[in-house]
Specification:
By secondary structure, this protein is of the alpha+beta class. The radius of gyration is 20 Å and the shape is elongated. Strand 4 and strand 5 form a beta hairpin. The N terminus is likely disordered. The chain is built from 2 helices and 16 strands. Strands 1, 2, 3, 4, 5 and 6 form a 6-stranded antiparallel beta sheet that branches. It has a 4-stranded antiparallel beta sheet with strand order 7-8-16-11, with helices on one face.
Length: about 220
């Protein structure tokens, strides 16, 4: 009887955990990259979630095929340096990308990522700040301040991450809020990890702090 009860409890916990995971990833599966050391998804395999700034020694420059859930960036050197390529879906032979036995680091796009060419960050979900809405999902001390022709954001983030400094990132943030381009941004602080205007992870970098977005 105790074993039956324990099994039922574990089943409920697993269901709750699965529901939480689905909620965190918008009802979809967690972004993952399954790497194989032989073509056609054969041989040894390992699964990466989120980021790998440097693959373990036994996987560095070993990948011959892979299955990518979500959008990923694969790079020849550590810390996402060297030649990189954006990929998604199944790649039966890395030779088709010129990346066979060359992958050293890889990263998924934050929050599923808007991806290259999509115009930057995804718009915020319902309940986040929007022009005239008055709602704010961040800490109260960082609430945006609305002006006649602009809106001031003292601590912009994307999916909980700092945003790498730069005009492209500042413009992408402003447009994700339903506003125009940025009129001003401050970049006097640094963070150990951030995301850029395309939602890609970066290493240590200067990040956006005060951002003024045009209302048009």
């Amino acid at each position: 009887m105790k074993r039956v009860i324990l099994t039922a409890v574990l089943a409920v916990a697993a269901t709750a955990s699965g529901a939480a995971a689905a909620q965190n990833y918008g009802g979809g599966r967690q972004p993952s990259a399954v790497l194989f050391d032989q073509p056609n998804f054969q041989g040894r395999q390992t699964t990466i979630y989120g980021t790998a700034t440097n693959l373990p020694r036994d996987w560095n420059d070993k990948t011959m095929s892979a299955r990518f859930q979500g959008r990923w960036r694969i790079c020849e050197d550590s810390d996402y340096r060297g030649r990189c390529q954006d990929v998604t879906g199944n790649v039966a032979n890395m030779n088709s990308l010129g990346m066979a036995e060359r992958i050293t680091s890889l990263q998924t796009y934050a929050g599923g990522g808007a991806g290259p060419g999509s115009g930057g960050f995804r718009p915020p979900p319902g309940g986040d700040w929007r022009p005239g809405g008055g709602n704010w999902s961040g800490p109260n001390q960082f609430r945006p301040t609305e002006g006649v022709r602009s809106v001031f954001f003292p601590y912009p983030t994307y999916d909980g991450y700092d945003i790498a400094a730069g005009s492209n990132s500042a413009n992408a943030f402003c447009r994700s809020q339903g506003l125009g381009s940025s009129a001003y941004y401050d970049s006097s602080q640094r963070a150990q990890q951030a995301v850029d205007g395309e939602g890609r992870y970066t290493g240590p970098t200067s990040v956006l702090r005060d951002v003024v977005c045009r209302r048009y």
